[in-house]
Design a protein that fits this description.
This protein has ten helices and nine strands. The protein has 305 residues and is an alpha/beta fold. Strand 6, helix 7 and strand 7 form a beta-alpha-beta unit. The longest helix has 19 residues. The model has no long low-confidence stretch (mean pLDDT 95). Bound molecules: phosphoric acid mono(formamide)ester (CP).
Amino acid sequence: MRHLMSPMDFSTEELDQLLNLANDIEKNPSKYAHACAGKKLATCFYEPSTRTRLSFEAAMLNLGGSVLGFSSADSSSASKGESVSDTIRVISCYADICAMRHPKEGAPLVASLHSRIPVINAGDGGHQHPTQTLTDLLTVHSLKGRLSDLTIGLCGDLKFGRTVHSLINALIRYPGIRFVLISPEELKVPSYIREEVLEKNQIPYEEIIRLEDAMEKLDILYTTRVQRERFFNEEDYVRMKDFYILDKAKMELAPKDMLVLHPLPRVNEISVEIDDDPRAVYFKQAQYGVYVRMALILTLLEIEV
Ligand code: CP
């Protein structure tokens, strides 16, 4: 039995297979419409979500399976003090696979150690968000045609942004990847990622503060939200929240084929005035999230179609 805690849990070959399967699902949805008949997905979300939870549910329904679960700690017995390890032992009696989001780093890993069913990390605190990374890889691969030889700008909250941490870990395995890390001083990428991931693997990167200085050299701009829920005080959040706003003027500095990705939700960091720009692909990205989660469910349940 396999779980998914980090994008590194899959080899590059396995990732390629998963992305190819997702592309086939996109092209031939009817072929997969009953692949999970009789199977149940539990979504155990201790933290708010729109995309991840609902795209997991849509994925399982598209595969002909069923879904059950809870969408907040308050509506589960966690509010009475139940541990994650006890909860997953119980969920193992009710479902065939579980997607879990938790505000504490490592909670889905603890669940996986006590589970009789595959557990998928659907986001743990400021640590990892592997299924967002699968979504991001599928988006780039489908729309750019490659995952190698790319200059990727990561912009915003690079300190607490779990999507950014997971994406860096996944992309460094492809040749010719360069990063431009764009953040205010206080929200720089954590030193363990800079030293243990980027420098250890000799991945070229630069750290800059002004988004305008990066635009012309990027193939991909991956923008993130400054996350109010990760700040210890409101004053720091208010100071940082509108540090970056991607607007038409900044988009004019970018190459004609640069893609703008965002895991969403956005607040102010991307102006709605660029939503119609063909380079703005963040809503397509949300759609790719369904295909890749369908592929992931099939892979972890070892169902071949
Ligand atoms: N991208 C993402 O994780 O969105 P949700 O928080 O809405 O799931």
